[in-house]
Amino acid sequence: MAQRPDRGEVATYIPELARIDAKSFGLVVIDADGHVAAAGDSEVPFSIQSISKVFTLTLALGMVGDRLWRRVGREPSGSPFNSIVQLEHERGIPRNPFINAGAIAVTDLILSGHQPREALGEIVRFMRFLADDSSITIDEAVAASEQRTGFRNIALANYMKSFGVLENSVDFALGVYFHHCAIAMSCRQLAMAGRFLAHHGRNPDTGLLVVQPERARRINAVMLTCGHYDGSGEFAYRVGLPGKSGVGGGILAIAPGKASIAVWAPGLDASGNSHLGRIALEMLTKKLGWSIFGV
Ligand code: GLN
Fold it and tell me: Which is deepest, 48, 144, 168, 205, by most CB within 10 Å?
């Protein structure tokens, strides 16, 4: 792993991510009127990884409603995203939907009553609908590598299965999970997809309600408290916005009422969150006074 203390380190657990140029950087801000401000590699698709968990949570809440919270908690874990320790204490119920275990449990809910292919199609269609862009696809090479190297996730899923938390087969739940983590999107597409969260559940362009305002508010709350794993406190302290990171180096951040923001810088900090992405968001929110906690 190349030491780049100024940029963080690119994820190396699969070759597709290890190959990404650590100097890539993209930023897109889309305001309430639909104005797009873009900088750097804003059109380059990257692996959204755990940012997909915001959208699977939204989709699953739409399918099963608040029943979802019987299967997964909504408290920050204070642990790494792929940690297994809490699962034993909490009898297989993951702390929140954004750590890997929680996201696998959410994916399992989406899968129930469907074939894996249908569930995945549903997730990709939802992303395309939200971003208003039919070109969004899954990077199959990333999905295959995730599957080949995902021993920790396989352990988490089996562990939850042993507590009866997963309804479907471990293979099916993980297959869908690995594939939605492998969706590739640009900063512009991601910022587009996040707009409903910035505007009370509504796409401000079309006026279409994606989720009820109360649900958007709650998804934002979980993003603020859990979106950066054991770095969530630091992100709230420095940036002060609901945000969700992925090990591909992306962050989706929501300035409620103001803008949807996506940043991509592949170098990660020790918690697996984009190092420069966080710094960029910190500078942006400071300059614009956009922290939800005030200036
Ligand atoms: N696919 C990765 C995993 O399951 C996602 C982790 C992340 O983005 N934090 O480990």
Answer: 48
* Ligand 1 first shell, C-beta below 6 A: 49-50, 81-82, 100, 146, 153, 181, 246-247, 272
Q: Kindly report the protein residue whose alpha carbon is nearest to atom 4 of ligand 1.
A: 100
The per-residue pLDDT for 294 is: 92
Q: Which atom of ligand 1 is nearest to the CA of 100?
A: 4
Q: Are the beta carbons of 104 and 153 closer than 8 angstroms? A: yes
The best mutation among 154, 181, 185, 229 to test binding of ligand 1, ranked by most ligand atoms within 8 Å of the C-beta, falls on 181
CATH 3.40.710.10 assigned to 20-288: yes
Whether 177 is catalytic:
yes
Enter the pTM of the model. 0.97
Query: Hey, where are the domains in the chain?
Result: 20-288
Predicted confidence (pLDDT) per residue in 191-217, tens digit = 999 999 999 999 999 999 999 999 999
pLDDT band at 5 (very low <50, low <70, confident <90, very high): low
